[in-house]
Amino acid sequence: MIEPHAPAPPGTTPPWAGPARLPVRPGTGRFLVLACVFVCAACGLVYELELVALATYLIGDSVTQASVVLSVMVFAMGIGSLAAKRLRRSSAAAFGALEAALALVGGGSAMALYAVFAWTGAWGGVWESAPRCLLVAFSLAIGLLIGAEVPLLMELIQRIRRQDAGGAVADLFAADYVGALVGGLAFPFLLLPALGQLTGALLTGTVNVMAGGALVLGLFRGDLTRRARRLLLLANLVVLALLATAAVLVDDFERAARHAVYGKDVRVAVQSDVQEIVLTGGTDGRSLDLFLDGRLRVSGRDEHRYHEALVHPAMNGPHARVLILGGGDGLAAREVLRYPGVDRVDIVELDEEVVRLARHDPALARLNGHVYGDARVHVITADAFGELRRTPTATYDVVVADLPDPGITASTKLYSREFYGLARRVLTDDGRILVHTGPVATRPEVFWTVDTTMRAAGLHTVPFRVGGRAFAFAAGPDRTTGASRAAHDWGFVLASPTARPPLRLAPGEPRPRTLTQAALTADARAAARTRVEGAPVSTLVHPRY
């Protein structure tokens, strides 16, 4: 690339660090370098956030994924910065090659991670860890390349006009941090909602390679040999062609990957402001499945077992006013509305797109009994925690918490002592709350932590489980149908503010299709046998899930 130079005598400036031959005035050249720093910093942060977001969606547990990505990337940036010391003799050519590599790796990271998740996740065995390993590999590679940028850019800006090291570092870091701010805001507010994760990453890579190539081939072309210029131009064109090809094929790729994840029967796939919603089946006698962010939330094969256990034990008593937290699919409301004497059902759902599908999708509306056509049903689009804070005291006779499992980080606050304290406040004195806690057999610690936390909030609890489920309401992405991996029960906790409620079905009609009083009693005994002594209390500032 750059012709080698002989070592400079001590105390003198080496030839490769002398003034650059620029086609513009030094002031303009300095501005262009800082502008490139700004763009590269924005792109680097987008790569980082894209890895965190996609890993959270695919693997789950946002705290763990963010910690892995950030810690590995920061470590790699330090190593990359040290490694860049060896490239100072050819800083312009090295920076151009580095940006081309970073654009290709960062821009293609989302597609690669999604592909590995989609096509290896169902293989089981060692392949289950493939997405996590690839996440670490991308974090390491991107961190190394980002870390090498700053020393090379420092060398380039000093070659335009020598200045004290402190001033140069201040200018460089100012442009870098402002660029990171713009990239950090652009990702959630522009790239993700407008383009999605895959196209957004590809566009970021395109901007990255164009900025790096323009700086080196335009401003520092005098530092490169003719052969180096040709090689760097070819590398940039190849990277641009690869990114452009991927962008053209991204819709077909996403469709094929979605089929690999959910099967060939995908009927609806919607990316809302909150999550990805996928409906499969529901026609020609095939069972309807609802997936939220890759997690199976409703299976038409056995959803009635879950929703009967979630609703019916809580309806034994006054039930004129019922609050359903979550449950935008309308299936819990379907069971509530079977009871005479229900005057009002409020459904608090964060994602209005789920409610829209529950209203208008023929298969889902048929499964929920067209509950949204009932004048007693009212939808509140809000976060469940915030809505409880706004609800007056003693408003509801029954609260049904149909929420994602506590193992999902975003749901942790909805299983906290503070949350149950708010739920207790909105209940009447003889009201009941029934909470879904996730599987008992595979996660007894979580189940008993929920029970302990509810008791700490002043509720009197009756834990129970329902066994025999055919498919998992998964706490993480679950694309298996094998009995060896699917959880085979659901855990629930029934509670009341004033006294321990009886675990009994309401007398008379309606009668659940599968749930019986004998089964409920047996399920409570079965849950008691899994008791974990000394389970901690989960709070907002000290989550235990």
Automatic annotation (TrEMBL):
Q: Which reaction does it catalyse?
A: S-adenosyl 3-(methylsulfanyl)propylamine + putrescine = S-methyl-5'-thioadenosine + spermidine + H(+)
Residue ranges spanning the membrane: these are 31-59, 65-84, 96-122, 134-157, 169-192, 198-219, 231-250
Give an example GO cellular component term for this record.
plasma membrane
- State where it is primarily located: membrane
Q: Which UniProt keywords apply?
A: Cell membrane, Membrane, Polyamine biosynthesis, Spermidine biosynthesis, Transferase, Transmembrane, Transmembrane helix
Give membrane topology per the record: Multi-pass membrane protein
Active site residues per record: D402 (proton acceptor)
* Associated pathway: Amine and polyamine biosynthesis; spermidine biosynthesis; spermidine from putrescine: step 1/1
Where is spermidine bound in this sequence? H307, D329
Select a single GO molecular function from the record's annotations and give it: spermidine synthase activity
Which residues lie in coiled coils?
none
Source domain of life is Bacteria
Question: Tell me, which GO biological process terms does this entry list?
Answer: spermidine biosynthetic process
Q: How does it assemble?
A: Homodimer or homotetramer.
UniProt lists the family membership as follows:
Belongs to the spermidine/spermine synthase family.
Q: Which HAMAP family match?
A: Spermidine_synth
By what name is this protein known?
Polyamine aminopropyltransferase
Source organism of the structure: Streptomyces lincolnensis
